[in-house]
Amino acid sequence: MKLGHVLQKAERGEPLSSHELQFLLELSKPDELNQVFELACRLRDRYFQNKVFLYGFIYFSTWCRNDCTFCYYRKSNMHPNRYRKSEVEVLEAAKRVADSGVHLIDLTLGEDPFYYKRHGFGSLVKLVNKVKMNTGLPVMVSPGVVPEQVLSDLYIAGADWFACYQETHNRELFSRLRLNQSYDARFSSKKNAMRSGLLVEDGILTGVGETLSDLAFSLESMFRLGAHQVRVMSFVPQKGTPMDHWTTPPRVRELLVIALLRILMPDRLIPASLDVDGVEGLQARINAGANVITSLIPPQLGLAGVAQSTKDINEGYRTVQGIIPVLNQMGMRAASLEEYSCWILNEKEKLQRPRSREVSVS
Ligand code: SAM
Ligand code: MD0
Ligand code: SF4
């Protein structure tokens, strides 16, 4: 297979086969990798020019009923100092990160029994509504798997996005990562979210035992799902978990997946997460084709990251102020809130068109 041939095909917008995706995932020579990254950036710039979107991250409860083998906050890990922030604390954090200039607030939690059982999802829906009202910003919710009715309630409360990462689209590997969880329930929740009017983010991990053919299949699955935002993160080993002794994968794998996500889905949002390598890892991810910076965390409020629970947070590096110089140095710029709002409005209209057509026929 010839690299130039495959890249020309991709540049013309022709779909790549699984075989071609795997061929690209195998590349390792610097000049070949650069050709892939350069194409990804050209495609990104075609749709987004030099605009980058910024997401504030609030992990407001680190309690979880699940036992994912890769996660620091799995229920049987005794190491984390867990917390559940009160409504006042969440609103304070949301206000701070909103004032710092982010375009969206990502409200994330473990599958916390407080919301999943005792207080019901009503208090989560109310919290989402208050954050939306207080900040006026687009809101993403990352709660794990929730019933369809709750997705619809979240939409009505003002949520714009539902994020739920499959981690892998290989069912057997999924069952080793997300112990005792249903692959189908997790995947369907994203389709249900779209039916409720929410934009959806799917994502995968690298370095968790996947093969190149698994990665190619994940790329195709996320494309078929029609996710609006698609991500990849390198696995970071966590103390006290069954995967504690694993090594973190070479970053070239994550970077290649970012580039292939861009090549396959040139007009989608693709994050460069600060939660893997902090600000130090930002430039490489943007240069691979990412156009969103996620995991910007207000410092000094006792909020954690997921894969890097403390890295760069209290130092204030994972902030808008901390990343703007890096962006500018690369000739990129933070988008305006209006530019971001336009993008999501446009995507929401596309989501709802089939439904309104159904209504007008009946
Ligand atoms: N509890 C919700 C869920 O699982 O969907 C939302 C929060 S969860 C902690 C967010 C994501 O963080 C996971 O889906 C996974 O992709 C990522 N993550 C968790 N642990 C990680 C690790 N050790 N390394 C890299 N990414 C990790
Ligand atoms: C991030 N730590 O963006 C966050 C998290 C959840 N929607 C996002 C994984 O990297
Ligand atoms: Fe819980 Fe999410 Fe961590 Fe799994 S990844 S243990 S669901 S917080």
Automatic annotation (TrEMBL):
Family annotation (InterPro entries):
Aldolase_TIM, Elp3/MiaA/NifB-like_rSAM, HydE/PylB-like, Pyrrolys_PylB, rSAM, rSAM_sf
Q: Which residues form a coiled coil?
A: none
Residues binding [4Fe-4S] cluster are: 64, 68, 71
Q: Which residues form the Radical SAM core domain?
A: 50-275
Q: Which GO terms describe its molecular function?
A: 4 iron, 4 sulfur cluster binding; metal ion binding; transferase activity
Instruction: Write down the required cofactor(s).
Output: [4Fe-4S] cluster
Q: Is Isomerase one of the keywords UniProt gives this record? A: no
- Positions bound to S-adenosyl-L-methionine: 70, 167, 178, 186
Which positions bind (3R)-3-methyl-D-ornithine? 106, 142, 165, 231, 273, 294-295
**Which keywords has UniProt assigned to this entry?**
4Fe-4S, Iron, Iron-sulfur, Metal-binding, S-adenosyl-L-methionine
Q: What does the entry comment about cofactor binding?
A: Binds 1 [4Fe-4S] cluster. The cluster is coordinated with 3 cysteines and an exchangeable S-adenosyl-L-methionine.
The GO annotation for biological process reads: pyrrolysine biosynthetic process
Please indicate which superkingdom the organism of origin belongs to.
Bacteria
**Is 4Fe-4S there in the keyword field?**
yes
- Protein's recorded name: Radical SAM domain protein
Lineage of the species this protein comes from: Bacteria, Bacillati, Bacillota, Clostridia, Thermoanaerobacterales
